[in-house]
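Predict the holo structure. Ligand: zinc ion.
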Amino acid sequence: MNDLIRSTAAELAAQIHAGEVSAVEVTQAHLDRIAQVDTAVHAFLHVDTEGALAAARKVDADRVAGQQPASALAGVPLALKDVLTTEGVPTTCGSKMLEGWIPPYDATVTRRLREAGVVILGKTNMDEFAMGSSTENSAYGPTHNPWDLDRIPGGSGGGSSAALAAFESPLSIGTDTGGSIRQPGSVTGTVGVKPTYGTVSRYGLVAFSSSLDQAGPCARTVLDAALLHEVIGGHDPLDSTSIDRPLPPVVAAARQGADGDLSGVRIGVVREFAGEGYQAGVLASFTAAVDQLRALGAEIVEVSCPSFTYALSAYYLIAPSEASSNLARFDAMRYGLRVGGDDPSLSAEDVMSLTREAGFGAEVKRRIMIGTYALSSGYYDAYYGSAQKVRTLITRDFDAAFEQVDVLVSPTTPTTAFKIGERVDDPMAMYLSDLCTIPSNLAGNASLSVPSGLAEEDGLPVGLQIMAPAMEDHRMYRVAAAYEVARDAAQGGPLIHRVPEVSV
Amino acid sequence: MDYAEVVERFDPVLGLEVHVELSTNTKMFCGCPTTFGAEPNTQVCPTCLGLPGALPAVNGKAVESAIRIGLALNCEIAAWCRFARKNYFYPDQPKNFQTSQYDEPIAFNGYLDVVLEDGEVFRVDIERAHMEEDTGKSLHVGGATGRIHGADYSLLDYNRAGVPLIEIVTKPLEGAGERAPEVAKAYVSALRDLLRALDVSDVRMDQGSLRCDANVSLKPKGQAEFGTRTETKNVNSLRSVERAVRFEMCRQGAVLAEGGRIVQETRHFDESSGSTSAGRTKETAEDYRYFPEPDLAPVAPSTEWVEELRATLPELPWERLKRIQGDWQLTDAELRDLVNAGAVDLIAATVDAGSSPAEARRWWVAYLTQQANTRGIELVELSITPVQVARVIELVNGGSLTNTMAKDVVDGVLAGEGSPDEVVEGRGLKVVSDDSALEAAVDEALAAQPDVAEKIRSGKVQAAGAIVGAVMKATKGQADAKKVRDLVIARCGG
Ligand SMILES: [Zn+2]
């Protein structure tokens, strides 16, 4: 493994901007790595070799011409989740429904990456329309966890997390509706951040659940995630739910945290996220992480958030309800798959039905049906209406907790990576993967997952979730960066360097 | 059933839903232009095509128009309201949901006072006015009816998809009795005038920028509960509104009289036959699964903004009529006649161009109305402008034209001979004001009728009329009659 692919994004940027290595060399090294390992990992659905090299050449040319780098990450490669539109580059959302669809426009996140000189290597695998926790629901086959190729890399953004852990890319973009950035981060030993809802534009993010979806940065270090966060974040008039305020100072917070001093910081441990259903090694790793935070000077208190117990149920009404409406547009009339369109005996309605029958996978259909039912007249108040009330209660629990503490912590997900195929026939077991991450989607506040070590019983990565109030994202970056330094010191080097070499 | 019998046995209940396309430059949720009649699918973007990932952003101008319409309809304006998704699958609906408003309309609880032809005022209560987006257009090719059933294939044009619409819904209108069809027509007409005055829409029923759906039901006289209603669509002119309501009343009356049951359904109005036919049955009410639109922030107009908009409301049509009635000193009946003749705007414009209301009114209701009737066209369709009429009046007042010559000039303008001044020039119409020429004509006439001349000399000045007539005839009407009369009396030593 050469040094270029093991470097952090910050290191690569420094070398590229100093002229020590060209962006093209860095890009080529990653393209080579993808060619070498992705048949085994399957993190990518599409590799845009030409586009990536062209973007890298532009960065090099600008530097030679004496121009300042377009951003702190100019020239650094990135893997983009296939749920964000890319002009001229296929976008499938992991679905047969959009096989071959080439968007005519860039998502705002895509545009900001391009403008920042970030090199987009390609599009990463995901659960179909971001519905799932294992990437097994991709219509194009599962992604494999680089820590153990028989295991899932998390989901829905398993391609984005696996690409980081397999050193195919130093940066990636995920989207998090119920944990799809944080849970994959947790099970692959990488950093995943769900920013405050409304701080990263959703324009061009193919919607699963509009009121919950949030794109965010994924990386191998906290600082890299912060640098990427600042590139993609900020107000966007094309997204009406975008917050028109300056982005929280996340990079400054990550640098401050690296000093390793958390004195004066109050950290709340969520009482409800422990006990039955949690793997022993996960709880042990979490307890050790909390001890480490205390050792860094933080004040630790236990906090109760009783409504979090109902978060999963509320989520599985709100998200499918919105999804049932958002996914109605896939009807064969304008783009994407079309079944029966050439048969003159079929009506438009027939073609819609046949296409949706053939184009959507089982999990997507399940959620469309749940959502359609929950919104039906006569059931709306009992289901969608009640779920919205629970959402309000969860927000109040967060508000009350943040009266007492600066950030909250919990395990990111109750278990380490499970085996591929293990939960495919048990949706409820699958849904439990997002137990701890969902409250922050419902409340819209910021939350991240940072690796906390390996579980003793299986040697697989465990994630520490740190939650901050809305628009206070910098708080969790500071705590995560401080923890990262202490963890590496205690465990003898970066956790990610203990990932086994991918056998191909 | 005979209409007289229907209204004798039943009370009609109406509900009118009017869709108004706003004339904003851009669509409701994207920046695409809204020009009518552009090449298909040229005014589209990711948002109004419903492409994956695209998001809506509210057109502030459309919200402003919605509030102004609400205020003009005496509605309350919501301090906070949301858009909602109305979910249903149809190919002309790019997202397979329409972004609309459901239980939180921007404007609600208003009324519009409608003046019927005989001057009676009927108050139409407004339930709500809400914002939504228009659909695309389907063109069904092949088949007999032009409707989707039986068509060989369909073409879709999304230029109209996302154009801002305001839907204005009345409360159930009761008590109109036999005048229900007239009330329906008068309401849509008054609403159209109002929207035009607000300058928020083209209000062209023929182009679909104003569309009316008429809900009609009958209940036996004295019964409190409403009967089953039908909703008639495709009512594309004021006259059709009246005809459709009347037809439905008769049709339903006949069904009910035979002990039948009205089916709750959507019906289609056919302009040529004047009848309605059954469309989609609504027995199993479609479930639109409304829920608040998560892609849009709530609309929360501040009180200050609403009051600012209230201050920008133009003089509303009925306020203007009240003012005109006072300014022009008209009786109720006179005003009504002008309104019914479609003359108010023409007279007002003529007055604006410098004529007195009385003169302007005389021209438009007398000679010009007669000309329009002869041609079988509306007054407004005559090829003469209020400014031209004002010029003719000015020429008469200045003594350049006699009334007879003025009619000649108007005829010339109507015949396409140019402006009044060009017609005067072209037809050689000049008042004969040369005194010596006139004196010669007077002398000639007196000489031709010596007995009349003698009478005048003996003091019977009323006999001068015969001489004046002869002079006018001799000068082909180009002399000023009063001047001729004065001359005759002077020549006879008066
Ligand atoms: Zn558009």
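The domain at 3-308+392-498 of chain A is CATH 3.90.1300.10 (Amidase signature (AS) enzymes). Residues 104 and 261 of chain A are 48 Å apart (CA to CA).
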